[in-house]
Design a protein that fits this description.
Blueprint: H1 5-11, E1 15-20, H2 24-34, E2 39-43, H3 54-57, E3 64-68
Antiparallel strand pairs: 1-3, 2-3
Length: 69
């Protein structure tokens, strides 16, 4: 069985934080960088997102999932 993108990143030490759009996305990424963490932004993937994502699906390109390590 193929791994999800989240599982692939976890094997490389990345931890999923949450999914955001602007302006919160830039604020959160900057906050993690300020405390010395690496930040990776991945495209929004509704199949890997917990909870209700119906409203996010209408504008998938506006959302990114934040990973840190």
């Amino acid at each position: 069985m193929a791994m999800t993108r989240e599982q692939e990143l976890a094997q490389k030490g990345w931890k999923r934080q949450n999914t955001y759009n602007e302006p919160r996305l830039s604020e959160i990424a900057a906050m993690y960088e300020e405390i010395g963490m690496e930040v990776r932004l991945e495209p929004f993937n509704p199949s890997e997102e917990p909870g209700c994502t119906d409203c996010m699906k209408t504008m998938e390109d506006k959302y990114k999932t934040v990973y840190t390590r």
